[in-house]
Every structure is written in structure tokens, then in C-alpha cells.
Amino acid sequence: MDFTSLLSSFIPSWASVCLLLGFFNYLGIAGSILPGKLVPGAILADGTRLHYRCNGLLSLLLLVGLLVIGGWMDFVSLTAISDRGLELLSTTFIFSVIVTLILYMAGCKSNDRSASLKPHISGNIIDDWWFGIQLNPNFLGVDLKFFFVRAGMMGWLLINLSVLAKSIQVANLSQSMILYQLFCVIYIMDYFFYEEYMTSTWDIIAERLGFMLVFGDLVWIPFTFSIQGWWLLSNKVDLPTAAVVANCCVFVIGYLVFRGANKQKHDFKRNPKALIWGQPPKVIGGKLLVSGYWGIARHCNYLGDLLLALSFSLPCGISSPVPYFYPIYLLILLIWRERRDEARCAEKYKDVWAEYRRAVPWRILPYVY
Ligand code: NDP
């Protein structure tokens, strides 16, 4: 592909605009009407409490079901996304810029003084647009922050499935593609199965909704996390059986550590007496868990996530660094995030954190880091 045709494939068409808006409309409607557990969110400074309807899994399954039936009946093209990957990327990017400019302007004009909607304006327009000025803006009753996170994770799966459909269409479905798709499906379905855990994350509770978050959710997650699938469409890999087995082991261990660690902390926060691996939990200062994964390293959940990320790339073999974009990015991100979280916890828990550090000296990987 020459440079001019590469550039022209980024130009948004009406078809890509319709695809994107159709997806958002579906998500808005499905998220509002489908049944789902109503999870209470953070209590805000003004005493009000946010609530999130966790029906992401049902919304996703229904959408995939509708698309498969539509594809089977020739109403929709299952390869529409993979045929228009680059223009969908630029359309989504432009959408993120426009929507965050609107959020900025609407936030500035808002007279709402509630903690959730009170504008935090620094006066630096770029800063305010980038980080956002409102904590939980909504549109027609839809919490936009929760909506965009959901859209990003579902978008990743839809891109993957369309790439899978493309590889079937061009008859190059490989063992590597099946492994990559399988691991991602499990990871994303698991994410939506435990969607309520998302409601207590830092992004949802504390970050304002600006370009950084919207771009991260809508562009970065779906379009960069799916690089392996795109790469496998045009590259052939022969994996020996031992490599397939090793790859599956990395995935399973990563999953157990990632989900196990996050679940142990989640359960502990809700019930500090909840058993960990069948034993009463060991706790420091009444606040910090030292049992289970949290007694092995202070961020074992990051280790699990990194192993999972690696397992998504290993099906591509080692001939190119391109499919390793996601694990490399995640390694840098999580090391940086761990440092920031460490500083926050040291500040918040003071001596209790120092005691925890002595009891659990490893940050992410025991005996290495
Ligand atoms: P964590 O889930 O690790 O939460 C850190 C917080 O947990 C701390 O600030 C503290 O908060 C509490 N805490 C820390 N240690 C203990 C302990 N021993 N006992 C009890 N509470 C403790 O942080 P993240 O939100 O960063 O990560 C959540 C998941 O999301 C991880 O699995 C991570 O890998 C994943 N992630 C994935 C990304 C991706 O791009 N794929 C990006 C970022 C995260 P408190 O003040 O409440 O006690």
C-alpha cells in the first residue's frame, strides 16, 4: 500500500460514522432497558450516591447474537469493521475530540453544584479539556464515564470478531488466530461478568471525564489492544505443540492470579472476615490484607494482567515486535501506576503501609521486582 492510499484509508466515510453512532445508540438503549444488578457507586461529597446498572454482559451477548443472525441472513456484513479499520479509527478519534469539546463547554456552562457535576476549572483550556472538568457527566440519564469504558471493552471484542470473520472469509484462519481470539473472548467476557468491580476503580470514582479518559476508552483500548488480530490477518505463524501448551499455561496462570487477586481484595473490602484460600485473612492495622495474593506481592493483580497480556501476543510467535505492543505498553503503564499507587497508599495509611511493606517486600513479581 503506497502512502497516498494509506492516508486515504483514514478518511472517515458516512458508513463508518453510521457504524459508530449505531453502536453507541445500541449501547445507550440496551444499557438503559436491559435488566442488570444496580450497583451503588461512590458516595459523593454532597451526600448523593451514584448507581450503575451492570448489564454489560447481557448487552454484549445480545449484540453479538443480533450481529450473527444479521450476518447469517445477509443483513449485516460481519467484516464491516475489519474492512474499515483505519477509517473507524479516525472516526472514533474525531468523535472523541468533538465529544470532549462539548463536555468541556457544557461543563463550563453548568450551574449544577453537586460534587459530581460541579465544574473544576483550572483556567488552562488545554488542561481542562484533557483532564475534564466534571466528575460524572451524563447524557439523557446515561452516565457517560461508565458508558465509554463499556464501549471500549465491547469495541475491542467487536473488532476482534470482525477480524476473525475476515480471516474465515479469506481462508487464512490459523491456530494462532484461534488462540488469540479465545483468550481475548474469555478475558472480555470475564470483565463483563465482573463488571460491578469496575464501579470501584480509580477511573470511575476519581477521574474527571476529559479527552484523556475518552480517548483511552474509545480509541486506545479497542484499536491498540487488537493489534495482534490485525497482524495475524497478514502474517503466518507455525507454532509447535509445546509452544501452544506453554501459551495456554501462561494464560491460565495469568487469569488465576489476575482474577484471584482482584476478587480477594474486593471480597475483603466488603467483608474483612471473608476467608482467603479457606483460612481467616491476616490483616495489618485492620485495613490491609496480607493473605492470599496480597501476601505474595503488593500488586499481584498487575502480575496476572501482565501474564494475560503476554499470552495474547505469544500466539504471534517472536518474529516481530509489533504484536507485543500491548504487553510492552502495559508493563510500562503498570510499573508507573504501581509507583503512583504506592505513594498514595504510603500517604493514606502511613505506618500501617510501612508495616505492610516490611511484611510483603515485593512490588509485583516476587524475587525480581
Ligand atoms: P488495584 O486494584 O491494585 O487497587 C489499588 C488500591 O487497593 C490501593 O490504592 C488501595 O486502595 C487498595 N489496596 C492496596 N493494597 C491493599 C491491601 N493489601 N489490602 C487492601 N487494600 C489494598 O488498582 P488498579 O485500579 O490500578 O487495578 C485494578 C485492575 O485493573 C488490576 O488488575 C490492573 O491490572 C487492571 N488494570 C488494567 C489496565 C489495562 O490497561 N489493561 C490499566 C489499569 C489497570 P484503598 O485506598 O481503597 O485501600
Describe this structure in words.
The protein is 63% helix and 6% strand. It is mainly alpha-helical. A two-stranded antiparallel ribbon has the order 1-2. A two-stranded antiparallel ribbon has the order 3-4. The radius of gyration is 22 Å and the shape is globular. 35% of the residues are buried. The model has no long low-confidence stretch (mean pLDDT 91). NADPH dihydro-nicotinamide-adenine-dinucleotide phosphate is lined by residues 201-202, 258, 262, 265, 268, 288-289, 294, 299, 301-302, 305, 330, 333, 337, 341, 344-345, 348.
Helix/sheet category: mainly alpha
Strand content: 5-15%
- Which blocks of ≥5 consecutive residues have pLDDT under 50? none
Question: What bound compounds does this protein have?
Answer: NADPH dihydro-nicotinamide-adenine-dinucleotide phosphate
Give the neighbour order of strands across the main sheet: 1-2
Fraction of helical residues? 55-70%
Overall average pLDDT: 91
Number of extended strands: 6
Instruction: Please count the helical segments.
Output: 16
Q: How do the SSEs run, as a string of H and E?
A: HHEEHHHHEEHHHHHHHEEHHH
Largest sheet: 2 strands, antiparallel
Whole-angstrom Rg: 22 Å
* Overall geometry: globular
End-to-end separation in angstroms reads 43 Å
